Amino acid sequence: MANPVPPRDRTDQPWRSEGAPPPPAPQSPKRKMPGGWGGLILTALIVYLIANLVLSFFNQGDEPTISYTEFSKQVANDNVTKIYAKGDAIQGQLKKEQPTPDDSDSSSKNYTKFTTQRPSFADDDLWANLEKHDVTVTAEPVVQERSFLSNLLISLAPMLLLVVLWIFIARRMSQGMGGAGGMLGRKQPPKPVELEPGKKRTTFEDVAGIDEVEGELNDVVDFLKNPDEYREMGAKMPRGVLLAGPPGTGKTLLARAVAGEAGVPFFSASASEFIEMIVGVGASRVRELFAEARKVAPSIIFIDEIDTIGRARGGGSGMGGHDEREQTLNQILTEMDGFTGSEGVIVIAATNRADVLDPALTRPGRFDRIVTVSPPDRSGREAILKIHAREIPLAPDVDFAQVARTTPGMTGADLANLTNEAALLAVKRKQKQVTQGDLSEALEKVQLGAERPLVMPEEERRRTAYHESGHALLGMLQPGADPVRKITIVPRGRALGVTLSTPDADKYAYTEEYLRGRIIGALGGMAAEHVVYGVITTGAENDLEQVTNIARGMVARWGMSEKVGRLSALPNDAQQAYGLAAAPDTLDVIDGEMRRIVDECYTEACDKLRENRHKLDALAAALMESETLEEAQAYQVAGITRLTKE
After folding, report:
1. Which of 42, 316, 364, 504 has its CA 20 to 30 A from that of 612?
2. Contacts of 311 (CB under 8 A, 6+ apart)
3. What's the order of all strands across the beta sheet hosting 16-18?
């Protein structure tokens, strides 16, 4: 019998889950009001008294109290329109606004309504005087005062506002948003996405092209399915599996497939989601994630792009052990070490830069296995294309084997994009099925870029034709070079023309002869312009970048220079760290050897083009006429026999 799944305490963790049982109805823990209800009542009473004082202050001085002499003067001047009397107290209203008398207790400059007090000894026959000047004596007060209810509501408004604010803060605290993290901007993370009952999960059937990796992960799946058999033999479940490889090779898909194949809950998060401005938040999120995974163990935690937080420590990029990134990494190391009892939880991580990870992260007991996920081979590409085309209606002429042969080096993500582009083209053309032509055009768009409606002058088109013909001709003439698949002078992407060359089969190791051929082919465009026009244009910028990278690798990394010797003088990321990884004398030798190789290749390219000038002219003329030449047509125009290698 499987152990019952413990209930969850919270559902606001910053990760997504799949296959985990739905959480029970949330029960908010009771939290005491800060300061208690007594503090709230005391504060409300103080606010009420202050509000009454303020209101009484504003209620005073709205209508000035004038002297009875001033009142009599205004009556005599026929400036009083009506009055109201209650005993000896008189309220009144003037016809015309008057300045406030100096003896008044009001600070207002002018007034129309007023109050006054008739002296008890006055015998001025007030009633007759009022009738004489047509003053109306009303039965209602001239100065209307707010009712008791209005004053009560106005005075209670600040207190009600305070109560609402207090309740809002209490609810935020009850949701776990209190403390320094909540007050200083800790974001509320999204709730986990639960797997719907009966929904199909990702399995190894959805993964193709990486069979050798699938074989290594099958051990993890078997361990999750049959843990008791391994425990009886004293074998321990691996703590972690690190998937390393280029982008788009299917690392995330593999992790999901392992969880789906084993039928265990799957928690996934990006490493950057743990990092916050507040130090300690990332570590707390790691603790919550592992605690959640342990509740439903056996389970899998997947952390994508782990190099975000897993880089080697002590580089001086942060503030030592107090850096938020390092705090988060330390917490992951602690959780994976088993110190907290993380039995049954396997961590799968993915990275494109396994070389920069902290050694403590990749030692046995943390990430026990490092699995390299490489781009698929030809048969793998064909299988991947079939998987991505499951829901796409295909025409009978579609040949995925042919597409796979012309897509060396493409990853699973590239192939998924290729099939999607072909489907988009079919929709634009109002077709019901995707044809081989759609796939070919989509491949050209992906590899060469989209066509640009650029109108070039005739002379510039001719120069571009010679430039691309130089690339193609040298590719055809050079022994061991990749076959030319297509030549075009239609502007695509940033290029004015493109020559596409791909190998017949996947290559994993390159000879010096092949690399020199690559350099000669890349310099073919510049050499053709030099041979035909005697000038050099800016069109060879991208070609020179390729030449520089290949020559640097030959001299400084692959030991293909006698002067530098059989050593690796520059790291892989030499473009960023060039000049920092070797002694100055060694860098000078590298520079000289690179120039020697490139100069030799450029001289050879020019010589071959001069010897085969008629073939170069024929290719350029065909391009001027057709703009695009396919593989067979290009070899036929050049008069060169294409040797097929399978």
Report:
1. 504
2. 317, 325, 356, 357, 358
3. 16-18, 266-270, 299-304, 345-351, 240-244, 369-372
CA dihedral (222, 225, 228, 229) in degrees, to 10, reads -30
To the nearest whole percent, how much of the chain has pLDDT over 90? 5
Residue owning tokens 């039995």: 343
Omega into 7 within 30° of 0, i.e. cis?
no
Contact 330, 284 (CB under 8 A): no
Residue with the two structure tokens 């609810």: 171
The alpha carbon dihedral of 128, 132, 133, 137 has a sign of: positive
**What dihedral angle (degrees, nearest 10) is formed by the CA atoms of 92, 93, 95, 100?**
90
Burial track 295-333 (b if 16+ CB lie within 10 A, e otherwise) = bbbbbbbbbbbbbbbbbebeeeebeeeeebbbbbbbbbb
pLDDT in tens, 418-450: 999 999 988 998 888 888 888 888 888 887 777
Q: Are 296 and 340 in contact, with CB atoms under 8 Å apart?
A: no
Question: What is the C-alpha separation between 285 and 469, in angstroms, rounded?
Answer: 59
Phi/psi zone of residue 204: left (φ > 0), alpha (ψ -120 to 50 degrees), beta?
Answer: alpha
Name the residue with tokens 């008739």.
118
Supply the residues annotated as catalytic.
468
Q: Report the alpha-carbon distance of residue 269 to residue 16 in Å, rounded.
A: 6
**448, 500 in Cβ contact below 8 A?**
yes
Q: What tokens does 457 get?
A: 């002058």
Give the Å distances, CA to CA, from 44 to 57, 172, 251. Answer: 20, 21, 59
Summarize pLDDT for 591-601 with one digit per residue, the tens: 999 999 999 99
| Strand 498-501 with 484-488, pairing | antiparallel
DSSP string, 93-140: EEEEEEEPPTT-S---SEEEEEEEE--TT--S-HHHHHHHTT-EE-SS
Q: How many CA atoms lie within 13 A of 490 on its CB side?
A: 17
Average pLDDT over residues 190-199: 44
DSSP string, 47-78: HHHHHHHHHHHHHTTSS-B--HHHHHHHHHTT
∠ CA 317-318-321, nearest 5°, is 130
Q: Which of 79, 75, 63, 78 is nearest to 122 (CA)?
A: 75
Query: What is the rounded distance in angstroms from the CA atom of residue 181 to the CA atom of residue 179?
Result: 6
pLDDT for the residue numbered 601: 92
The 8-class DSSP code of residue 536 comes to -
Per-residue pLDDT averaged across 487-511, rounded? Answer: 80
Q: Examine the pLDDT at 577 and tell me if it is beyond 50.
A: no
Q: What is the 3-state secondary structure (H, E, C) of 169-195?
A: HHHHHHCCCCHHHHHCCCCCCCCCCCC
Give the span between the Cα atoms of 535 and 533, in whole angstroms.
Answer: 5
User: Residue 217: in which H helix or E strand, if any?
Assistant: helix 211-225
Which tokens sit at 30?
A: 């009771």
Do residues 269 and 16 lie in contact, with contact meaning Cβ atoms separated by under 8 Å? yes
282 contacts 406 by C-beta, under 8 angstroms: no
- The residue assigned the tokens 């009978």 is 396
